[in-house]
3-dehydroquinate synthase
Amino acid sequence: MKSIITPSYAVHFNETAYDALNTHLAAANYSKVFILVDENTHEYCLAPFMAQIQGEYVFEIIEIESGEINKNIHTCTQVWEVLSELDADRKSVLINLGGGVVTDLGGFVASSYKRGIDFINVPTTLLAMVDASVGGKTGVDLGSLKNQIGFISQPKMVLVVPDFLGTLGERQLTSGFAEMLKHGLIKDRNYWNQLKSVRSFDELDAYILDSIIIKNEVVQQDPTEQSLRKILNFGHTLGHAIESHFLESKEHELLLHGEAIAAGMVLEAWLSYRLTGLLAEELEDIKATFVERYGKVSFPAQDIDAILTLLKFDKKNSHGNINFVLLQNIGEAQIDVQVPDDLLREAFAYYSE
Amino acid sequence: MKSIITPSYAVHFNETAYDALNTHLAAANYSKVFILVDENTHEYCLAPFMAQIQGEYVFEIIEIESGEINKNIHTCTQVWEVLSELDADRKSVLINLGGGVVTDLGGFVASSYKRGIDFINVPTTLLAMVDASVGGKTGVDLGSLKNQIGFISQPKMVLVVPDFLGTLGERQLTSGFAEMLKHGLIKDRNYWNQLKSVRSFDELDAYILDSIIIKNEVVQQDPTEQSLRKILNFGHTLGHAIESHFLESKEHELLLHGEAIAAGMVLEAWLSYRLTGLLAEELEDIKATFVERYGKVSFPAQDIDAILTLLKFDKKNSHGNINFVLLQNIGEAQIDVQVPDDLLREAFAYYSE
């Protein structure tokens, strides 16, 4: 496969990935190479990754606990302290080997350690490959508020190696697939139709590449999310609130990110049908596709109240208004749509019926 | 006086400062105006500052505890949580009204809140006016390691109002004056000679402007500290280690930043005499000038050991070597000079004799 080269960093795929990494490490003359993992990528991904590195470098492995619940400033402080104890200096590099928690948190830690050291992202989950791998968003949660702390900082390079997907279960792959479906909905109707027919996750390579190309095109045109980039938030305004609510509530089973935004996309598709011209048959297509793959989350009335309360804290809100990204049709999104409060409850009613 | 306009931000002096702020606030349409203070600037600076603001805005005051000991991630987390509770959104602005702790920490908090909101620095100490006011360094300490966490992020504008110096004691003014003397040593012999003859801090305005111009010229040529900007670290390699040691040691009285780097500059002037051609009479001039204004810090042998241990953690070190900025003569600095270990102890011997 191929590489996507942008002005600030490069995304390398599959067999070209390790070549690019080895060439970079040989040229960069890093004082030390730190690798950030969680207990899962430590066990399943680190050995195959290390086996591909040629040359002699000083490596240090830093392990954090997996899970969104650990994506916080406390974990950052622990990693900063370990870096400091292990003499990381400005010429050190941090390789983030893991899912979105590791790449988001590791990117933030690296960019703010001694005013910024190089970092390289090696996403090991489907979600991280198609979403966190490009765009440079780094950060951690503040309490139950997702990605409240962080900033835009580009990795030196991103290595996308689909082999790592073999370490994941079906549920995690399905979660990541939701972001790919989103890329179809906001930007490419053909891609959406192709993905709908995917029946096995064994042959995802080409589709992953398409997803990254779509995301990369959007991000390059609007790196700091002034306008166009906001379309990537489709499904995320309600999806994040749902995810946060399930994260902080002790009664609920944990909802994976993709599962939360799958529900968010159905809800926001309904808003699109009411407000921005999405056709009834497109709405039904979207609902049927997501319900078939993700089932339905149950939302009792008190959960809906809590979710709508969390909404106002979403980081995309400005001046107290809640701005949504909605669809004009499948493949075309519209940003900055304000939605009346009462419509939000109707959306949940449609989702549940 | 006048303003310094750079590509990314502007520094406004004295009477032009409030005009610039009022014009900016009227145009920017912020959702809320947050003002970060410590208990001292809350008491002495906030009222006169607010009195100069024209127009109706929603203000929220956030107070942190003063002192380097509170310049840490824990304080950041508290400020992030207050911002979140008070519904700060991406269109909010944070005005940092205080000394270097408030402007460094506030800049870091703002730049990483929801991936970055605007911030404005209003330095109220001499040190912050001539040092922290330009250059965009933000950050906090990690344990006793100064500025270990942070990054370069530019404020929207910097307002330098020397009136605030009336709220400071002689000791704090003298501390800030050390950074001005440094600007003379590294870049401008005439300025050094002028400052030596300053006998009263009542008429510092013109000198403050000169200092900011010198620092700004350096920073504009090398914003990310690849080479030239390093000259601003003269006196700081040993100075920071001394400051950190006194901060974490319970037996010592607290040393102000300028007091620590005054000692650091004498020590590094001696290294310059031995390694980079500083003349003996220049060395004596530097030592006499600093000892007259700052006295001598007492360094028992065990303190020197501890300080040299801290040195290797200084964030400017790379690959385990300790790079110094030294003087070729008064007004001209040389970067990346490696100093043999044994010379460091000799420098302390010279300082104490």
